[in-house]
C-alpha cells in the first residue's frame, strides 16, 4: 500500500503538538507502534514523521530508541542570535547583486498569502525555506548558507499551527525584504531581515512561555 505524503505530514504535525504541549516529554521514546495506535495510523507515516522530527532537532537517537529532546527558550535565543548575525548581512550582500529568482520568490509569497496555509500542507515551510536559503546563497558564501539552512530547520516546527499570528505578518515581512533587495538598497534589506527575525524569535518565545504555563491534564 502506497503512503500519501499528507499522512506523514499529518503525523508530523500531531506528534510535534504532543511534544510541545507536554503529552510527550523529554526522554520519552518515539515508538512507531504506540504512536501509530494513538494517531490511528499505520507505522509507515509515523516512521517518516519521526525521521523528520529528528532532523528538526526535537528528537535524538539514543541506542535503539529515538527520544524526545527539550527545546527551550535558551536554545531558541541561541539559534536566533546566530541567524541575526548572519542573515541580515546576507540580505545586504544580496542587494548588491539581486538574485535572478526574486520574481519567483515574490510570486510564491503572494500566492501563499492569497491561498492561506493548509493544515496538512508544507507549502508555507517550503516557501519560507526557499526564500531564506536563496538570499543566503546570493551572498556568495556556501558555508554560511548551509549553516543558515540548518538553523532554519531547528525552528521550522513553529509554523502557522503553533504561531498563527505570524503567518500573514511573516509573509508581509518577506515581501518587504525582497523589495529592498530588488531595489538594491542593502541597508534597507539588512534592517528588514533583522526586524523579521527578531519578530519571529519573539513570537516563538511567547509561544514557549504560553505552553509552559498552560495547566496539564492529569494523567
Structural overview:
With about 220 residues, the chain is mostly helical. Helix content is about 70%, strand content about 5%. The protein contains 9 helices and 2 strands. It has a two-stranded antiparallel ribbon. The radius of gyration is 18 Å and the shape is elongated.
Largest sheet: 2 strands, antiparallel
Q: CATH homologous superfamily name of the largest domain?
A: GntR ligand-binding domain-like
SSE sequence, one letter per element:
HHHEEHHHHHH
Which consecutive residue ranges, at least 5 long each, have pLDDT under 50? 215-219
Number of structurally distinct domains: 2
How many beta-strand runs? 2
Q: What top-tier CATH class of the largest domain fits best?
A: Mainly Alpha
The CATH architecture classification of the largest domain is Up-down Bundle
Q: How many H/I helical runs?
A: 9
- Compute the average pLDDT: 88
Outline:
By secondary structure, this protein is mainly α. It contains nine helices and two strands, in the order αααββαααααα.
Please render the helix and strand layout as text.
Elements: H1 5-20, H2 32-39, H3 43-55, E1 59-62, E2 65-68, H4 73-96, H5 102-115, H6 123-138, H7 142-153, H8 166-183, H9 186-213
Antiparallel strand pairs: 1-2
Amino acid at each position: 500500500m502506497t503512503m500519501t505524503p499528507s499522512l506523514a505530514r499529518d503525523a508530523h504535525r500531531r506528534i510535534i503538538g504532543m511534544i510541545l504541549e507536554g503529552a510527550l516529554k523529554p526522554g520519552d521514546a518515539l515508538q512507531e507502534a504506540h504512536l501509530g495506535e494513538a494517531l490511528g495510523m499505520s507505522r509507515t507515516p509515523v516512521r517518516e514523521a519521526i525521521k523528520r522530527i529528528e532532523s528538526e532537532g526535537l528528537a535524538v537517537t539514543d541506542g535503539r530508541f529515538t527520544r524526545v529532546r527539550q527545546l527551550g527558550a535558551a536554545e531558541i535565543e541561541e539559534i536566533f542570535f546566530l541567524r541575526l548575525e548572519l542573515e541580515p548581512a546576507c540580505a545586504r550582500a544580496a542587494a548588491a547583486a539581486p538574485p535572478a529568482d526574486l520574481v519567483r520568490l515574490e510570486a510564491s509569497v503572494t500566492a501563499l498569502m492569497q491561498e492561506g496555509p493548509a493544515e496538512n500542507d508544507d507549502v508555507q515551510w517550503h516557501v519560507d525555506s526557499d526564500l531564506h536559503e536563496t538570499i543566503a546563497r546570493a551572498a556568495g558564501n556556501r558555508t554560511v548558507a548551509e549553516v543558515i539552512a540548518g538553523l532554519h530547520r531547528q525552528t521550522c516546527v513553529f509554523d502557522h499551527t503553533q504561531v498563527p499570528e505570524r503567518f500573514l505578518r511573516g509573509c508581509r515581512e518577506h515581501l518587504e525584504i525582497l523589495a529592498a533587495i530588488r531595489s538594491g538598497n542593502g541597508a534597507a534589506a539588512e534592517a528588514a531581515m533583522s526586524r523579521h527575525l527578531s519578530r519571529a524569535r519573539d513570537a516563538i518565545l511567547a509561544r514557549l512561555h504560553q505552553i509552559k504555563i498552560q495547566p496539564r491534564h492529569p494523567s
